[in-house]
């Protein structure tokens, strides 16, 4: 099946009891058992729920993976992966991370005796130096939030294999429409389903997909033990959203391309971060591993101070100032004070994330209107 067919059909059958085309919302906490221990695969909804199962199978198919698990949030999905580790283990990760991921690493798991090493992974030629016998997990985002840095997934997968480290890719920005990390050698793919996959800014959810059966069993065990599961109504909404993922992504990419070029030619803008530009540090890698460049863009003004950036954000009318991304509506954000506020300023600046950086999640509105909005907000 091709992608556009999978989003609608993979793992989805009409409901066996009624023939309902849409997967029913199994709003139940428990299931009747004819005799103790004899049941139809469902006992208690923390462990399994039919609405959730359909979504999990669908998302696994989209990432070309054998198994999928959905969680109450993207963060709880990451948390489940970290619970595979033991005190003394090391995680090798990128300097370019979602703020919440950085916070979970440094403010929660560091206290449990797990070490986190942050390195720039855009250049892979000297990456081996950072591995040692304690390196058990490698965690990356590509494109990264918010500066759209690109990491070579296939190249890094090879290094991880050599050092026997688990390799996990947060694929939230690219979505399975643009890139499939499992196919490129990753052990686990993680998603904040909250973003593009659900796509309508009405659900908080996370997901993990893997081809390794033993890993899947451990992750499912962790999930059932700790209970970070989404409710059936949210699973229904994610299933409804995912059916249009391919056509939404197509438009996000088209609009993203248009706006990236508009910003690049604007006299008040000094730099635009978008992997579709040939001069982007890893444009060739992006071209190889992604089918297009997405709708996430960041830019800085020539007047590189915080106030003019805030003025632009306040003047925007169609781009709403808000956390999050990947919905049908365009959003604008200020990473330094919003999504990445939990990263210390010094660390943030070192990673190149300037105070004046503005991040756009380009929606699927008419591109003409979006450009007009940016034009009026930037001024002449
Ligand atoms: C939003 C986000 C997360 C966290 O997901 P939640 O659903 O908000 O818990 C993780 N990684 C990236 C790249 C994100 O954008």
Percent strand: 15-25%
Could you tell me how far the N terminus lies from the C terminus, measured between alpha carbons in angstroms? 49 Å
Give the % helix. Answer: 25-40%
- At the fold tier of CATH, the topology name of the largest domain is Aspartate Aminotransferase, domain 2
Q: Give the full name of the CATH homologous superfamily of the largest domain.
A: Type I PLP-dependent aspartate aminotransferase-like (Major domain)
Strand order of the largest sheet: 1-7-6-5-4-2-3
Number of helices: 13
Under the CATH scheme, the architecture of the largest domain is 3-Layer(aba) Sandwich
Q: Could you tell me which ligands this complex binds, including any ions or cofactors?
A: pyridoxal-5'-phosphate
Largest sheet: 7 strands, mixed
- Give helix and strand order, one letter per element, not per position: HHEHEHEEHEHEEHHHEHEHEEHEH
What's the CATH class of the largest domain, please?
Alpha Beta
What is the number of domains?
Answer: 2
Write a brief structural summary:
With 380 residues, the chain is of the alpha/beta class. 35% of the residues lie in helices and 15% in strands.
């Amino acid at each position: 099946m091709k992608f556009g067919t999978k989003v609608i059909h993979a793992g989805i059958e009409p409901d066996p009891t009624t023939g309902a085309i849409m997967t029913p919302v199994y709003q139940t906490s428990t299931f009747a058992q004819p005799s103790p221990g004899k049941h139809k695969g469902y006992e208690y909804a923390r462990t399994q729920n039919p609405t959730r199962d359909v979504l999990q199978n669908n998302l696994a198919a989209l990432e070309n993976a054998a198994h999928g698990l959905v969680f109450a949030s993207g963060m709880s999905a990451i948390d489940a992966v970290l619970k595979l580790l033991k005190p003394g283990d090391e995680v090798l990760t990128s300097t370019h991370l979602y703020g919440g991921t950085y916070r979970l690493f440094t403010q929660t798991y560091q206290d449990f005796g797990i070490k986190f090493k942050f390195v720039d992974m855009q250049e892979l030629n000297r990456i081996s130096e950072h591995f040692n016998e304690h390196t058990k997990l490698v965690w990356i985002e590509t494109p990264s939030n918010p500066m759209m840095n690109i990491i070579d997934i296939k190249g890094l997968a090879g290094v991880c294999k050599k050092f026997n480290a688990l390799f996990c890719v947060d694929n939230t920005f690219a979505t399975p429409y643009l890139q499939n990390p499992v196919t490129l050698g990753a052990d686990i793919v993680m998603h904040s389903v909250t973003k593009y996959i659900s796509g309508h800014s009405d659900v908080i959810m996370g997901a993990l997909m893997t081809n390794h059966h033993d890993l899947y069993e451990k992750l499912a065990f962790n999930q059932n033990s700790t209970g970070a599961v989404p409710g059936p109504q949210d699973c229904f909404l994610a299933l409804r959203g995912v059916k249009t993922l391919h056509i939404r992504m197509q438009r996000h990419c088209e609009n993203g391309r248009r706006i990236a070029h508009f910003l690049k030619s604007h006299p008040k803008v000094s730099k635009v971060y978008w992997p579709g530009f040939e001069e982007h540090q890893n444009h060739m890698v992006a071209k190889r591993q992604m089918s297009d460049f997405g709708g996430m863009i960041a830019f800085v003004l020539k007047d590189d101070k915080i106030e003019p950036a805030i003025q632009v954000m306040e003047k925007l009318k169609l781009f709403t100032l808000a956390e999050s991304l990947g919905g049908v509506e365009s959003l604008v954000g200020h990473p330094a004070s919003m999504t990445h506020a939990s990263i210390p300023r010094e660390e943030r600046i070192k990673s190149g994330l300037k105070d004046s950086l503005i991040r756009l999640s380009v929606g699927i509105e008419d591109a003409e209107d979006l450009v007009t909005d940016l034009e009026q907000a930037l001024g002449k």
